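Input/output pair, single chain:
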Amino acid sequence: MLLTFYRLLARLPLGWLHRLGRCLGLLVYRSSADYAARLRANAALGGYEGEDFARRAAAAAGEGALEIPRVWFRPDRALAECRTDDWDAVQGALDEGKGILFLTPHLGCFEVAARYYAHRGGPITVLYRPPRKAWVSQLVEGGRRGPNLDTAPANLQGVRQLVRALRRGEAIGILPDQVPGNGEGVWAPFFGKPAFSMVLPGRLAAQTGAAVVLAAGERLPGGQGWKVHFVRLSGPVPETAEDQAAWVNAGMEAMIRRCPEQYLWGYNRYKAPRGETPPAA
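Output:
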């Protein structure tokens, strides 16, 4: 039933999906006081205060939710609506032949960036957390996979799959601003506040020598599609896990500031996994 609904949504023009999404995002914002408060608090850490910004960010979150069916089930149309000015950063990494580690924060259409690379650059394997319900997992896996695009579960088997892909000189993709589980992260600043952050990106980069490239699909107004940004993180990979996480977080902050209202500020980014205690201020 959900698959049929997603396929029907995918048939709508992108501008219609975005308009419906804005209504959905504002409805959620108005109906959940906890969500609204968390969105405002997290955005304020980045210097984005005020009800007007919060409402725009909530509306953008709704746009992001309803554009996913188009990316998953009408990928040819979605790819035709993508453009980039940053392909040189990707081509330089490809020419080195050591693989590319794409880090895509929850910014804009984060589903379209990996598909765009798969269409233009080559094979990419994306790490994801399988939903607990089997029927939802089937929908997600079916939607995310495509030509040159594979998925790997967020477990030891999936990490090994990522390493093998990098060893072959291929690309992998990770959402680096998800809160990792106990023992899988370190505390590092994110917009000035300690956030439990993944150690996996830094470890993979240090272990394989892969190029680390931030990627994000900025949503364009009027249903015009997306502008895909690629920015390579500069300098050598830091030595410690804490410095690696801070390096990645700083890169994400800079990317988010390009289109801050399109970041998922309502995500509970600063939660502490069980057994982890934030450092004293």
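The longest strand covers residues 211-219. The chain has a mean pLDDT of 93.
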